[in-house]
Amino acid sequence: MKTRIAAAVLAAxxxxxxxxxxxxxxxxxxxxxxxxxxxxxxxxxxLPIIGTPVSEVPANVQSATGAQxxxxxSPDLPDYLNNNIGSxxxxxxxxxxxxxxxxxxxxxxxxxxxxxxxxxxxxxxxRVNEALGDVVNWDLIPQGAISSMTLIPGSNPLFGLNxxxxxxxxxxxxxxxxxxxxxxxxGGSFGTRSGNVEYGGTKDNFDYYVYGNYYDSDGWKDSRTAxxxxxxxxxxxxxxxxxxxxxxxxxxxxxxxxxxxxxxxAMYASxxxxxxxxxxxxxxxxxxxxxxxxxxxxxxxxLAGNVYWRDLKSTNVSSNVNGGFDGSNGGTVCDxxxxxALCPASxxxxxxxxxxxxxxxxxxxxxxxxxxxxxxxxxxxxxYGKTTFxxxxxxxxxxxxxxxxxxxxxxxxxxxxxxxxYTGSYFTDTFAFTERLLATFAGRYxxxxxxxxxELGTAPGIDGTSRYDRFNPAVGLNYNPGKAINSYISYxxxxxxPTPVELTCANPSAxxxxxxxxxxxxxxxxxxxxxxxxxxxxxxxxxxxxxxxLYRTDVYDDIQFVSSxxxxxxxxxxxxxxxxxxxxxxxxxxxxxxxxxxAAYGYVDATYRSSFSLPSPDNSAANASGNIQVEPxxxxxxxxxxTFKLRTDWQATARLSFGGTILYAGSRYPLGNENNxxxxxxxxxxxxVNLDGRxxxxxxLQFFARINNLFDRKYQTAGILGQxxxxxxxxxxxxxxxxxxxxxxxxxxxxxxxxxxxxxxxxTRSESR
Length: 769
Known about the structure:
Elements: H1 2-15, E1 62-65, H2 66-71, H3 77-84, E2 88-91, E3 101-104, E4 107-109, E5 119-123, E6 126-127, E7 146-153, E8 166-172, E9 180-188, E10 192-203, E11 206-217, E12 228-240, E13 244-258, E14 263-264, H4 265-270, E15 280-298, E16 301-321, E17 345-365, E18 374-398, E19 404-432, E20 437-454, E21 464-482, E22 485-496, H5 500-503, E23 512-513, E24 527-540, E25 544-563, E26 570-592, E27 595-608, E28 612-615, E29 627-630, E30 642-651, E31 656-665, E32 686-698, E33 701-708, E34 716-724, E35 739-746, E36 751-760
Parallel strand pairs: 5-8
Antiparallel strand pairs: 1-7, 2-3, 3-4, 5-6, 7-8, 9-10, 9-36, 10-11, 11-12, 12-13, 13-15, 14-35, 15-16, 16-17, 17-18, 18-19, 19-20, 20-21, 21-22, 22-24, 23-26, 24-25, 25-26, 26-27, 27-30, 28-29, 30-31, 31-32, 32-33, 33-36, 34-35
């Protein structure tokens, strides 16, 4: 029954395999294909049941395996994407590797509130964008347990809310596909020490897999900042027959992350390791369970579904300059309330608790239509998230090291509860007119309901429910005349509903600090993105693979955080009438005997397409009211136009291999310079070189090493306009000498790590199939 399905589905997948040959035979159950150690097919639906051959996807999808990530010893997912995937850049906003802002085609996904989130992220079919602000906490994704990763570009409606520029889908390992175990330990620069263990196996129809990771680092900045303690545990138990597959997975994380904040130009020039103010910490505690089931009902029918429960408690402590301080007492003595005794600083402590649950149901029908091959999937999803957000504030003063020292107790300022309910129903159908010409039709109807309640009763105006509904279509055409070229053209639409954070901080006359103090605000409109894409890919001979894509995404009612204070952390969210991201992607992979070369070039032209006025008091071109005028064609800040990545891998001997990456990112305007007219201009582009290597000491025992930023280049990844209040001797607090300047996020300096890995109980390549 099931064998004919696997043959039909995976015959096309075999034709789409990489040009490097020799891949093992696929797993017997079609519902388990995306757990394979090799990329044969990609998941193109929220709940991956069976994969789709890349040649039949009307988009420039980019994929990687967990083995490729481990080979480069990437500490986190953004690091690997930044070094290998086209059109991806990373903003090291906090100086912490687990708190990077990731941008793809000019759309951002970040762990920090205030960024306009435009990408959706999935782990085993569960959307992990948090309910409060659609942020993604990279430290909660167990990197070493990843089997495969796929980045699907465009406003693909199948992946639901927040898929404006793309969807990142991560699939985890199973014991059936990854039998045996490994132990690894490494250490190096900045007091970094880490270890991880994994083990998987099978018994009859059952399989099991477990992964544990411990990472402890002082960080590259000042000893007080950018520390990381990451503790992760992931387990999966499965049951599989020829026509049934069940997986129950559990993720646990208990992490503490310190950040270093952006720094003004003077500090950057003097010592880019200094913190601007301190402290800034985040504690994340996660429990996440996910049950996935699939059943082959007949040789052309597959039913699948998942249910999940997810609980996250996140505690944040941050220090901020008080923009309202008048400097009358010099900032040495204050009580925060008495005139003439205001405080120059404040500390904010927020506790966010989110409990989410939901599931997806999906049915796939592979019945031909007449004599034409056809694949139809229909599905429905429901996601529920309940969040409590409590924030307390404390008056503070700065010591000579810019530590924010509390004055008096923390005072409750915010206690808001929100409930998010997202429902969606979708379909996708791929029809083969011929084996060379295929059409894909898809669509999704989304309903988003966000209910807010002020528990303190001080801002009853925020109480209420906002609802957003929309149907988003997609259509694509693939023409594949041969292996040398697979071409496609597509159009799709996606939507993003405003988050609770944005809905309650949208009033220009009552700006909010981040993390937010909730107030009554006018409503925001939902964001709608429309994407056209034209491209192709193929193989030339047995050693060359290529891909190219042209795209344009117009975004209507884009939501952006607008800074309205000298500190840069106070502002409001607003709808921007229209923005555009358009560009070009070129990828090439070449095998030259023992040498593999991979090149990726991305051009992203991100611009505003409408005229509007924004407050930006620190922009040198601002008018007397502190506003700037943005015109069509002005570039969107913090998005470099050009990126280039060159990756080389050399198998020097049977035991010794080396790899290296050259990473280039072009210049970009800082936030606050939306009119592109501030006298500070752009942040310069940069080039960074990273190296990695492996030596097989003995069977199962490997030594590895990595060097980041080989030439110790000093560079900036993003920026924002603001006022520097630390202009005194040794950058001490100096209110009267505050200067408008560019605050930037410096990249990490030269760093080296080395370690050993021991594999045991793993079958050889020939034995594994």
